[in-house]
Design goal:
By secondary structure, this protein is of the alpha/beta class. The chain has two domains: 266 residues, Aldolase class I (TIM Barrel), CATH 3.20.20.70; 188 residues, 3-Layer(aba) Sandwich (Rossmann fold), CATH 3.40.50.2020. Helices cover 41% and strands 18% of the residues. The chain contains 18 helices and 16 strands. The protein is elongated, with a radius of gyration of 27 Å. Bound molecules: the ligand O=c1ccn([C@@H]2O[C@H](COP(=O)(O)O)[C@@H](O)[C@H]2O)c(=O)[nH]1. The site of the ligand O=c1ccn([C@@H]2O[C@H](COP(=O)(O)O)[C@@H](O)[C@H]2O)c(=O)[nH]1 has 16 residues, from strand 10, strand 14 and helix 15. Catalyzes the transfer of a ribosyl phosphate group from 5-phosphoribose 1-diphosphate to orotate, leading to the formation of orotidine monophosphate (OMP).
């Protein structure tokens, strides 16, 4: 289940926008838990917090720094804490991770080993840093846009109060992923700041922080930050409440106070005009999300790349990477499958080497036998040109990854034909649109592509993944 599905299920079930920080901070621990063994005191206290709050929150947020500060026992405590959170409640790891070099390996550790549902990230390394976290389709990230620390003002309000950096971060990070992938972390006591961010990002989930610092303005904060559905804002339980032995009671009364404001907003909104998103989903490419995920995975690269023909292209598509990401690989297979369902054939043939895993996946899905023409015939062993069993006269559909000049796929198809097989259709994932389809037709083959290169580039450009320069260089090819 995705982070957002989990989150909304809990918002509904527990009727709560509250989240709790699961932070082993000895300074904030209730004195009731103090003992000579600090780690087990903290463990007992965190367990108490989870037990008291699980029915009244929509998420938990452990701060990695507090666990790291306790050394190896701290990291062990983190594992115990994560295991103690009921599995239906999402966990947002507050790491404020900011290092590009460790992003891929860190994403893998926290999402696949620790199994947290979301993470907080610092924005300064840009989309390159965020991308490795976004290739996990069920997970989400929260980008730190604003903090309430007075010392940060000199940066956040830069260059002017009218066009402050924190709003630029909000606008930019909206291009980094869909609302189901990228939320915003906003630390502020100022409802005006929250209102500005909400106006720029009406569709984003906001993880509110530090709202209690000045107390007393909960209503304004809620009015500024909630969306028209009365949600879209995750509200922290005040830290000092977590040391209260009556935690469960306290949290329920806070939840009631918040829900009163939410209900008023929902009621008022139902009598007002409906909010329309600033993105027209009708115009979105049907493979929009898959294109962005392929880009985030590094399958679409920009730079100078020499093709087999010697031509230099400003980009290179490397679909071989998908085999290491089962989620994306599955989506790619589904896209091929939609085309293959409408074709008639006895066998599938993959073009080595890049398309062999894809052809294998499709053969398994479609329960269809597979063969492949060898790239080179070995001087020993069977010396076969075609691997796998077949009967001359059968019809074979050829599967390949990308059509540039068509040379590889035509060579493969001709080897199959020489063995007495019929080739009517060639299915690729990407057509580079250099008139290769006509070349295929001249040979008697019908070319089918899941995507064209211009559909990919348009989608990346509209989503803000590539800039104008990259987009225009592509248009010149
Ligand atoms: O961006 C690219 C370009 C090429 N490839 C590989 O080349 C063949 C397609 O080239 P043809 O000129 O049509 O023979 C394709 O099968 C890839 O293996 C690539 O991966 N990415």
């Amino acid at each position: 289940m995705s982070f957002f599905d989990k989150l909304y299920d809990n918002i509904l079930q527990n009727q709560s926008l509250l989240f709790v920080g699961l932070d082993p901070n000895p300074e904030m621990m209730s004195t009731d838990y103090e003992s000579p063994d600090v780690i087990s005191s903290l463990e007992n206290w965190l367990q108490f917090i989870i037990t008291e709050t699980a029915d009244f929150v929509c998420a938990y947020k452990p701060t990695l720094g507090f666990y790291e500060a306790l050394g190896i026992p701290g990291l062990e405590l983190l594992q115990k804490t994560l295991a103690a959170v009921p599995s239906h409640i999402p966990v947002i790891l507050d790491a404020k991770h900011s290092d590009l070099n460790t992003s891929t390996i860190f994403a893998r550790t926290i999402f696949t080993e620790w199994q947290v549902d979301a993470i907080t990230l610092s924005p300064y390394t840009g989309q390159d840093h965020v991308a490795p976290f976004l290739v996990y389709p069920d997970k989400a990230v929260f980008i730190l846009c604003c903090t309430s620390n007075p010392g940060a003002e000199a940066l956040q309000q830069c260059p002017t109060n009218e066009s402050p950096l924190y709003l630029q971060v909000v606008k930019e990070s909206k291009n980094w992923g869909t609302p189901e992938q990228v939320g915003l972390e906003v630390g502020t006591t100022n409802p005006d700041i929250l209102a500005l961010i909400r106006a720029v990002a009406p569709e984003r989930m906001i993880l509110a922080r530090s709202i209690w610092a000045e107390g007393g303005n909960l209503n304004q904060i809620l009015e500024a930050g909630l969306n028209n559905n009365g949600d879209g804002l995750l509200i922290p339980v005040p830290q000092d409440m977590l040391a209260n032995p009556q935690l469960s009671k306290e949290i329920q009364s806070l939840r009631a106070e918040i829900n009163q404001v939410r209900n008023k907003i929902i009621h008022d909104a139902s009598t007002c005009s409906v909010w329309l998103p600033d993105v027209c989903l009708l115009n979105q490419h049907p493979q929009h999300d898959l294109i962005l995920q392929l880009y985030d995975l590094g399958c679409i690269m920009f730079g100078e790349f020499v093709q087999a023909s010697g031509a230099i292209f400003p980009y290179y598509i490397d679909l071989r990477k998908i085999i290491s990401n089962p989620q994306i690989f599955n989506q790619v297979l589904s896209a091929y499958e939609k085309i293959l369902q409408n074709l008639n054939f006895d066998r599938l043939a993959g073009i080595p080497y890049g398309s062999l895993p894809t052809a294998t996946g499709l053969a398994l899905r479609l329960h269809c036998p597979m063969i492949f023409p060898r790239k080179e015939v070995k001087a020993h062993g069977t010396r076969r040109v075609i691997e796998g069993d077949f009967h001359p006269g059968e019809t074979v559909v050829v599967v390949d990854d990308i059509l540039i000049s068509g040379k590889s796929v035509i060579e493969g198809a001709e080897k199959l034909q020489s063995a007495g097989l019929n080739i009517r259709d060639i299915v690729v994932f990407i057509d580079h649109e250099q008139g290769v389809n006509n070349k295929l037709l001249e040979k008697g083959y019908h070319g089918h592509a899941v995507l064209t290169i211009s559909e990919i580039m348009n989608t990346l450009y509209e989503a803000g993944r590539i800039n104008e320069e990259q987009f225009s260089v592509f248009a010149e090819v």
